[in-house]
Design goal:
Order of helices and strands: HHHEEHHEEEHHHEEEH
Distance between the termini: 27 Å
GO molecular function: DNA binding; DNA-binding transcription factor activity
GO biological process, one term: negative regulation of DNA-templated transcription
Largest sheet: 6 strands, antiparallel
Function: May be an activator protein for the gylABX operon.
Number of helices: 9
Pfam family, one: IclR_C
Shape: globular
Oligomer: single chain
CATH superfamily of the largest domain: GAF domain
Number of domains: 2
CATH class of the largest domain: Alpha Beta
InterPro entries: GAF-like_dom_sf, HTH_MetabolicPath_Reg, Tscrpt_reg_IclR_C, Tscrpt_reg_IclR_N, WH-like_DNA-bd_sf, WH_DNA-bd_sf
Radius of gyration: 20 Å
């Protein structure tokens, strides 16, 4: 997963076009991509009509391409007839060179952390204005949150996102703070001055604690992962149920995991540290 400059969120797609409309000017690849792009964090599962409307493709074209994508494994069909991104797409995304090395180094340590804290564990990177989960280990006792592999959220709204934002260039932070900052719950931080203060505290303390920013009853704790030249390349997070334990009790194994991953990636500051 590459780190890119700030990009605006995709605008809402136009209504479905008739068969003779401009979709005929699209290449076959563009039509396939138009279908895949309609899925996002707010639209994980869609009906055929919804895919057609959001992609701007006719219903007949959508029906044909969705069938082909489902046969290949790019889309999956649920029992109620709706569609979601399939595992083949997620598997391909995991093969991105930088993300693949990060996951290969991190996975054994993430597994140990998952066993130690008995909670949801995530490994995240920044992609544009979002945080993206490149690894996610769920727990039966974890908080009911959406942390699926490949899922993404705005940086300001998650623990790992705040860590990555806090260590991003000042110009990038300023662009995010200019907003708009999306609110998911009453506790989502959407005031620029408050978020700026929190990011400064994250840099000072070395970790982030985010309570019920996206899901009621969930508390996220996150720390940075460093790569060569000690640059922040990812963040490791643990999500617990509010009241199940304190964030401070999770920090020691979480920090140890981040240092181990950083050491595996060649971070100079992690050498010789446990």
């Amino acid at each position: 997963m590459t780190i890119t400059d700030p990009i605006p969120r995709s605008p809402a797609r136009p209504a479905a076009a008739p068969d003779s409309a401009p979709e005929t000017r699209l290449t076959a690849a563009q039509r396939v991509l138009a279908i895949l792009e309609v899925f996002d964090q707010d639209h994980l599962v869609l009906t055929l009509s919804e895919i057609s409307r959001r992609s701007g493709l006719s219903l007949s074209t959508t029906h044909r391409l969705v069938g082909e994508l489902r046969q290949w494994g790019a889309l999956e069909r649920s029992e109620d007839g709706r569609y979601a991104i399939g595992m083949r797409v997620l598997e391909l995304g995991a093969l991105e060179p930088q993300g693949l090395r990060l996951r290969n180094v991190a996975l054994p340590f993430l597994g140990d952390l998952h066993a130690a804290v008995a909670a949801d564990v995530t490994l995240s990177v920044r992609d544009g204005n979002d945080v993206v989960y490149v690894e996610s280990l769920r727990s039966r006792r974890g908080a009911p949150v959406l942390t699926r592999l490949g899922g993404r959220w705005p940086l300001h709204a998650t623990g790992t996102g705040q860590v990555l934002l806090a260590h991003s260039p000042t110009e990038f932070q300023d662009a995010i703070l200019r907003g708009p900052l999306e609110r998911f719950t009453p506790k989502t931080i959407v005031e620029p001055s408050e978020l700026r203060r929190i990011l400064a505290e994250v840099r000072r303390s070395g970790y982030s604690v985010v309570e019920e920013s996206i899901t009621a009853g969930a508390v996220a704790i996150a720390v940075p992962v460093r790569g060569p030249r000690d640059r922040i390349v990812a963040a490791v997070g643990v999500t617990i149920r509010k009241g199940s334990c304190t964030p401070e009790s999770v920090l020691p194994p979480l920090s140890m995991t981040a240092r181990a991953i950083s050491r595996g990636l060649g971070a100079p500051s992690s050498r010789g540290r446990g």
